[in-house]
Structures are given as structure tokens and as C-alpha cells.
Write a structure and sequence with these properties.
Length: 328
């Protein structure tokens, strides 16, 4: 089968109820664009019958294919696998739960044909999320744009179209702690946003808890900024300077007026204060060392247990060595 123009990659983790409604909405949109297309599902270790359903879809319509992981590797890695298996000149990434309206793809493709390499959906409201989650997201974007080495367009997520040359760059990035939004921005090229309204999740519930989101945000900051590592040096300098100044102040005061109290409480307080600072800075170093450890192990990003339909046709012949290492 000749390479299609458009590839849609969809990570799926326990999404059995969503696949039929998604397909029903997606196919007319893709057919309407008038370019050849394929869909690559990445089954991220689903424990329900998602894989069976995907297999049937692929049997009925060969434009649908799938890669199935040996276990759950997480959405970010699933996207990486999707990029490895997509053959199109433009790749569209979207969620399976219909929160990303398939109708938007038409607008994405139109912008791509105008010459943009990266067209991202920009969510206009986050009203489906709790206030805490929204506040946290906002704080994260502010922190990131201040300290990160790249800036992220606010409200842009994984729902996007990426031109082949962007995809090829992304595929060379083998890091494990994958913060896709940061990777997309790092790639650069000409990008533009298309606003869209996030729909309600169709079936099932979101797999993100507050804890996983926090983890994700920290991965993002740590992958693109060394500020958390460096800030302690400055703070350390400042605190030492302050303590010297205080010491001088106390010395002069004692010389002029003598002691009025033994100073035991202040000793305890300062010991506690500095142990706190030291523990915190050790913790930050630990975060980075942990990441270095994860990267130097050079494990493959994911393990494929099965390739279905068009995903099985992907040739590994022209792929540089580091991809071959990632492939199993
Ligand atoms: N997903 C995945 N692996 C995971 C968790 C989620 O592939 O470990 C997929 C999921 O099937 C969906 C997309 O990632 O297609 C977004 O997941 P979800 O709706 O849970 O996230 P949210 O919309 O809350 O950000
Ligand atoms: Mg969702």
C-alpha cells in the first residue's frame, strides 16, 4: 500500500467504548479532506477489550492499523511509538475520548497546506476541569515560560498536526521522561494555533490524577530548565551573606551592650533552618540524578507486542541506528 498523505495517531488505554463513536466521526472528516489517510492506534497496555475492537476495525477498514504495547507505558511514550509508525506527510495526534473534536482536523490540514509545519489546537476554556487543576496549569505555564529554555503556547496540548520534517526530528529524541509539549516547541519550525473547545470525555474517566499531573509538570520543568538546580546556589549565597551580617550585628551589639540572653533558641532555629535548606537542595539534586540514571540505562522506549494492519508495514530500512535500538 502506498504511503498515505495524512496519518492520525491515537493513543488508547482502556478506551473500548470510545473507539466506535470516534471512528464514526473521524472517517467522514478524513474522507472529506480528499487526501489519502491512515489511522494508527497505539494500544498502551489496555486491560479491557480495546485491542480486540481495534483489530476488528482494522480488518473492516485497512486504513486503520495499530501498534500494541506489551504493557502500559504512558501516553507520552505511546505518542512516540505512533510517530515511529506513522507514514504520512503530516501526522495528527489526538485523544481517543472525543475530547478533541475530529472536525478540527480539516482546519489543521488547511493551515498545513498554507505552509505551517506545526498546527496545534488551542483550548479556549478549561471549564471541564476543577478550579485547582486549572490554577495549577496556569501556574505551570507561568513558571515554564519564566524558567524554561523554550516557551510553550498556553492551552496547546497534544492535539496537533506535525509536518513530516518535524516528525523526523521528534523521532530522534529518545528521552524517557518525555514532556511532549516541550519537545514540540523545541523542534521549532513555523507553527500556528487553532482555537477549539474541549468536549466532555465520552466514556470512561480521565487517567490523570493530581499526583500524575504534578509528576508530569515537574518532568517538564526539569527536562527543559536547570533553574531548579541552580537556584540553590544563589539562595545559599544570599543566606550565608545574611548570616555573616547577623553575626557581625550580634558581635557589635554584645561589645556595646553585653549579652542579655544565652541564645539557645536562635541556635536551634538556625540549625533547623539550614538542615532544611540542605535537605531541599539534596532533593533537587536527587531529582536530576534520577533522571540521568533513567537516561543512561538506554532502555528502549517501549516494547511492541503486536503490529496490526498498516502499522506492520512500516519499513525500518531507512531508519538510523538509534531508532532500531528503540524498535524491538
Ligand atoms: N492514554 C494512554 N496511556 C495512558 C493514559 C492515557 O494512551 O496511560 C490515552 C487515553 O486513552 C486517551 C488519551 O491518552 O486517548 C488522553 O487520556 P485522558 O483522557 O485520560 O487524559 P485527559 O483528557 O484527562 O488529559
Ligand atoms: Mg481525555
Amino acid at each position: 500500500m502506498a504511503s498515505p498523505k495524512l496519518s492520525v495517531i491515537i493513543p488508547v488505554h482502556n478506551e473500548s467504548a470510545n473507539i466506535a463513536p470516534l471512528r464514526a466521526r473521524l472517517v467522514p472528516v478524513l474522507d472529506g479532506i480528499g487526501l489519502s489517510w491512515e489511522v494508527v492506534f497505539v494500544d498502551d497496555g489496555s486491560r479491557d477489550d480495546t485491542l480486540e475492537i481495534v483489530r476488528n476495525v482494522s480488518r473492516e477498514d485497512p486504513r486503520f492499523g495499530a501498534v500494541s504495547f506489551s504493557r502500559n507505558f504512558g501516553k507520552e511514550i505511546a505518542i512516540a511509538a505512533g510517530l515511529d509508525h506513522a507514514r504520512g506527510d503530516a501526522v495528527i495526534i489526538m485523544d481517543a475520548d472525543l475530547q478533541h473534536p475530529p472536525e478540527m482536523i480539516e482546519a489543521f490540514v488547511a493551515r498545513w497546506q498554507e505552509g505551517y509545519d506545526m498546527v496545534y489546537g488551542q483550548r479556549t476554556d478549561r471549564s471541564d476541569e476543577t478550579r485547582a487543576k486549572r490554577g495549577f496549569a496556569h501556574l505551570f505555564y507561568r513558571l515554564f515560560s519564566r524558567f524554561g529554555e523554550i516557551s510553550l503556547p498556553e492551552g496547546a496540548g497534544d492535539f496537533r498536526l506535525i509536518d513530516r520534517r518535524g516528525v523526523d526530528v521528534l523521532r530522534t529524541m529518545g528521552e524517557k521522561a518525555r514532556f511532549s509539549k516541550g519537545l514540540y516547541a523545541w523542534v521549532g519550525f513555523k507553527g500556528t494555533g487553532v482555537p477549539f473547545v474541549v468536549e466532555e470525555r465520552r466514556y470512561g474517566k480521565s487517567k490523570w490524577s493530581f499526583r500524575t499531573l504534578f509528576r508530569f509538570a515537574f518532568d517538564g520543568i526539569a527536562a527543559f530548565s536547570t533553574v531548579p538546580l541552580r537556584v540553590w546556589t544563589y539562595l545559599g549565597f544570599l543566606i550565608s551573606f545574611l548570616s555573616i551580617a547577623t553575626a557581625i550585628f550580634f558581635m557589635i551589639r554584645t561589645m556595646l551592650f553585653g549579652t542579655d540572653l544565652p541564645g539557645f533558641p536562635s541556635l536551634i532555629v538556625s540549625i533547623m533552618f539550614f538542615s532544611g535548606i540542605q535537605l531541599m537542595s539534596l532533593g533537587i539534586i536527587g531529582e536530576y540524578v534520577g533522571r540521568i540514571f533513567a537516561e543512561v540505562k538506554r532502555r528502549p522506549l517501549y516494547v511492541v507486542s503486536e503490529r496490526i494492519g498498516n502499522a506492520a508495514e512500516v519499513s525500518t530500512g531507512l531508519v538510523p541506528d538509534n531508532y532500531l535500538m528503540r524498535r524491538v
